[in-house]
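DM from R.C. (forwarded with permission)

"hey, sorry to bug you on a friday — could you get me a structure for this? deadline for the figure draft is monday and I only need the backbone to look sensible"
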Amino acid sequence: MPHLRRSEQGRILFVSAHAHQGAKIDFDDPLNVGTWSVKFHAREAFAHSKLCVLLATRWLARELKGTSVTVNCCTPGLVRGTRHFRNSPLMSSICVKAVTYPWMWLFMKNAFEGAQCAIRLATDPQLKEVTGEYFNDCEIVESSEMGQDKELAKKLYMQTIKTLESVTKLTVDREAYGMDLELQMEMESELRLEAPAEAETETNQAAEEKGKENGEEQRQSLK
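My reply, with the result:
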């Protein structure tokens, strides 16, 4: 993030999906820890994750407002070759596949078409000042109502930080008025690449010992 802020124009791009519109998030449990510990459903989890991505886009764009960094989100749409429905019980039927796949293939995008929205967000000079938006087919579109919930975005963000703090060196600075949050990743000396240096020292010591042994053998042979 510091490098992006120092750059002339940094861009952060998240990839969501149309599926986010069918997702629901419990405000008191935005990460669905309690729900999924009881019952996990892959399709619901996918939709939930894409809604979380969209909410993260909204919140991070708010946090970086006034900087040179923009944050946007897009959906590539349904793209051929991704095997998106490979685990769908409905698609396990050969008859269903025979009827639906030709139509799906006709209306789905190829890889080149699916990449266009992300490419535009990453490169188009006209989008230099655009941030916090959701794109489909290279244009700004409305997301679900829940995907625009600022309070839910904040709750999700803070819950994510709390979870990360429990397993990483991540710390959070809360500004005086308790709203703006900034992530700071402290570089600990213990995280430096000390192992390779130790390995190199051991290698040098081994080579030195070997050299001494060879020298001793040569002296013995000359006697």
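R.C.: lifesaver. Residues 2-189 form a domain with the Rossmann fold fold (CATH 3.40.50.720).
me: no worries. The chain has two domains: 2-189, 193-222.
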